[in-house]
Amino acid sequence: MRMPKENGGRCVLFPMYAHKSSWSSSLAVIQFENSLRRHNHVGLVQALLLALAKGGKLSAAEDNAKKVMKERIEQRQAQGGDMDED
Fold first, then answer.
1. Which of 6, 39, 48, 75 has a CA 20 to 30 Å removed from the CA of 33?
2. Considering the entire predicted model, what is its pTM?
3. Left, alpha or beta for 32 (phi > 0: left; psi -120 to 50: alpha)?
4. Is 26 helix (H, G, I), strand (E, B) or coil?
């Protein structure tokens, strides 16, 4: 770590410390983006789909998922709830 330069009795700070307000706002943005990355499961889903495809079980899993979703929609409609079907 470099030390701040002396300038006639005053201390000239590093640019990131001189702009503390912009640095702290950037830190807030970075922390928010990290929280999103922490809960990002796209890589996991991709790995699971790839493993199912290599094992030849992807179409069976897709058919099962469609069946389960139809059952959930029917249950929700029977209870009087509204669930959009894509």
1. 48
2. 0.45
3. alpha
4. helix
